[in-house]
Amino acid sequence: MPLPRTRGTALRIGVSPARAQSRAWGRLAELRGPDVPAKALDARALAALAANPGCARRAILDGAGVNKAALASALGAPSAFGQSQFALTRGNAFEAKVKADGGAELLRLVHDKLDRSAEPPADARVPDLTAAGPRGRTARTELELGEAAAHPGAWTLLDHPMLALDVAGSPAFLEPDAVVVHPDGSWTVVEIKSFPLLDGSADPAKVGAAARQAAVYVLALEEVAARLGAEGAPAPRVRHRVLLVCPRDFSNLPAASAVDIRKQRAVTARQLARLTRIEDIAGALPEGTCFSPELPAEELTAAVESVPATYAPECLSACELAFHCRARSRQEGAVTSLGRPVRAELGGLTTVEDVLAAARGEAGDPDDPAVAALRRAAALRAEALEAACR
Length: 390
Prior knowledge:
about 400 residues, alpha+beta, 15 helices, about 50% helix, disordered N terminus
């Protein structure tokens, strides 16, 4: 079964002619550095990228498969972003428990939370998705999804399927924890996390991050469903309520919650569509640009700074380069370091120096609402200080 078609010449994998594909691979290898393996994009990275689509720096580094954690360390701004080894081990053990016995408990939770009108999931089908490489696994997953959709009436559990999503002209391979095919032929994404559900609820920030990640998987599944529908059969329905499975309270027993991700799906789809094509960013870089952590610090810094970044405080919880970008943003006096809401209120004033000059009446258009508000605030502050000194 063919991989999804992409627009134009894809830099990473693509379906373009062999020569163009070879050039694309060579260009990305140059950006990563000699003999540096590519770091695959995952749904967490795509969700973070979609949350900041204007950041060309993250787009090219993720598109080229650069290890941003190693890059940040080489730049002298190591990041604390990421899961600890203990959390990963605990999460893997919990996932294995949830999927034990052919996924019986997992399917029971799907039935209980999302599809009580269907027959209980007894003797569900769990196909083998083993294949060579991500391309083979993607094709195998699509084959099994098509088979399950063509023969409704039974439950099917796909354990760690492989999906492909077109991102800025290049397909990224994604691996959800599980996808369940219901007896009616519809599909549900399952996210298994190690953070607890306490009294039926969890940390809203963590649930939000899981919902954004699940939205990426839903978009990839919708592309598969569209291709199956183009072959003449009715397109399977991808459910927009996903199942979040977490430990109950402080135990290792699984509990689940249905999460509506329609809002996250719409936002992620819109933001991914806005991403500049990776080859366009690469084509604008100086000849010989390389992001290898083995380069001297001065040369590596120049390479990173050659790509514009769009820093915001939210990057601290989503990107390994956040500390480096924050330091640069503060050094340049950019108002983005104060947060997106502040930046939006300031209009055309892009630096702290511009803001202070406008507030003092030294610069800026008096008819500009942002400038007028700053001058009014400065006047009120001066009045308050004068009254306090009396």
